[in-house]
Amino acid sequence: MKNHLRELRAARTWSQNDLAEALGVSRQTINAIETEKYDPSLPLAFAIAKLFKQPIEQIFDAPARK
Amino acid sequence: MEKPNLIENYIPHSGQYSLQKDLRLNAWLAVTVAVYLAVLFMNKGHPNWSPGLRAFYLLLPVLPALLYIRAWVRVVRGMDELQRGIQLAGFLFAALGTVVISMIISTLNTAGLDLGVLLRSGLGIGGTFLVMFPLWLVGTAIAQCRYQ
Questions:
Q1: CB contact under 8 A, A37 and B147
Q2: Chain A: nearest CA to B79, how far in angstroms?
Q3: Tell me, what DSSP letter sits at residue B3?
């Protein structure tokens, strides 16, 4: 799933480690989400949205449904 | 936020190694191996003991093995969602692989092929652990590759 996590993180000059620590996940998870290899669970997506004070749909682009 | 468990916490020289976490997890493995070796030694030295008594001490390693499994479950539950998924994939790979290897050994034994003293009666408790460990390493490595 496409997302803007890298841009949002970069805008706050946070490292992947900083973001991982703030969310209570591993750095590998942040990297996997940013490189679109892993889609976060709903609770983690909400935690990311809350941390960046943005609606989920502005961070994650919903995939087109067939 | 509480830090999630990482598999690196249990790998020496990984930079994130934690002796405390390692001991909490692997102490039961050490106990299982020690009890298993003691049981093998006892079984060899006392073949004439009653079947009930022999069954009792032959199954003793199962107790620390179950506690070792419980320690792993706690470690995996403390991981974050991606790491947990990777570990579950690794464990599933190891469990299914062990079942397949066990079935192959059983089939060959039934067919009358001589697989040596160690495999004549199946994998056994120690053999199961010895087969599962490398399979778990392979399974987690495959799962890790997907998210690199």
A1: yes
A2: 8
A3: P
- Which residues, 6 or more positions from A51, have their beta carbon under 8 angstroms from its beta carbon? A19, A22, A23
Among B42, B57, B79, the domain boundary falls at B79
Nearest to A26 among B2, B80, B148 (CB): B80
When CB atoms are compared, the residue of B1, B4, B82 closest to A32 is B82
> Over B67-110, what HEC string results?
HHHHHHHHHHHCECHHHHHHHHHHHHHHHHHHHHHHHHHHHHHH
Q: Please tell me the pTM assigned to this model.
A: 0.79
Nearest CA to CA, how far is B82 from chain A (Å)? 6
Provide ipTM, 2 decimals.
Answer: 0.84
SS3 call for A60: strand
Q: Which domain holds residue B118?
A: 80-148
Q: Residue B1: list chain A partners with CB under 8 A.
A: 21-24
* Number of domains into which chain B is organized: 2
Q: Say whether both B43 and B7 belong to one domain.
A: yes
- Residue B46: pLDDT band by 50, 70, 90 thresholds? confident
Residues B31 and B103 reside in one and the same domain? no
**Assigned token pair, B118:** 């160690």
pLDDT band with cut points at 50, 70 and 90 for residue A66: low
